[in-house]
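Aim 2 progress update. The chain analyzed this quarter is reproduced below.
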Amino acid sequence: MSDESSHSAYNKDRPFLARLTERRQLTKPGSEKDTQHFVVDLAGSGLAYKCGDSLGVYPTNDPTLVESILLAMGHKGDEEIMLKNFDTMTLREALLTRVALAQPTKKTLIIFRAFATAEDEKARLHNLLENTKPEELHAYLDEREFLDLIEEYPSVRFGPLAFIDLFRKLQPRLYSIASSPLVHGTEIHLTVAVVRYMTNNRRRHGVASTYLADRAPVNEPAVPVFISHSHFRLPEDDARDIIMVGPGTGIAPFRSFVYERLAKKAPGRMWVFFGDQRRAFDYLYEEEWEAWRADGRLAKLDLAFSRDQSHKIYVQDRMQESAAELWAWLQNGAAFYVCGDAKRMAKDVDLALHDIIARQGGMEPAKAAEYVKAMKKEKRYQRDVY
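Predicted structure tokens:
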């Protein structure tokens, strides 16, 4: 995967300052989720993308969290430091824009133990490091951010430069593009689940998702972005049928695919599987999907809302319900796409696909696996999972 656009001076190492021109709620009041639609304008960048690509976004950290960390560590924030790449800036600016304030590691605890001046804190850190089972230590760290550790071990103090060296580099986040260059021009659409949760009795926020939702200014050239090119691609043959499985925010690239194919008047049929928790609150882009289904531009639209009935229904269940037709599409050369959660959904969809091919094709499991392997080789089975 390349992070560079061959037609622009802007890339991952030199991001373009784009304009955030729209933020809109996709989930409705009553949803347990906060999923939003963002429009980022690349006008003037020379950046180009294809359906299936992602937009890289460099976020900034929450200023409130930064001020809390500075206060807890006893720094003013205006101390000037030089980073490893020789950039010079204030400690506050470095905490805002350069380092990740979550996810301390075992190495962090080792450093804290070395710098602790209170004997009881040294003892607690030593016990954590030497007498805690690995899975318990992982759980302890998973519940905490740097601010928690600074407050738990107040005798630990660092100078500004040593303090910054504690943190890992703040990385960009990649979001699947939900728009089509043929339809939306320099606009890039994103479908983002805004992450907010509680751990260790403290409210936490996903850095990039809340940056887009809460902190990025609107209509100002202020959001650092780049294009991350992918191998997740529509078929070269516009006549080939496509089957798209994208629950939740995994629907993003398939919105892009559908817009693109409709703009090209591609003759290939399109079948979408979408799922989420509740239809009344979580049906992302409902008006578009239903309009495309109603006028026949979508050949099939199968929906799985897991909590709308007593037993949970997922996209893989809908696949099984239409097993015979899905097999017929595959036999006719259809390409099969999956986007979304890698840990559970993508695995369950893959198992369902193998099972459908085995049962409908009258194959032994090994033969079905060979069929799937051939699909992958022919780029008829593509996954964008995370």
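The two ends are 15 Å apart (CA to CA). The longest strand covers residues 16-25. These observations will guide the mutagenesis experiments scheduled for the next reporting period.
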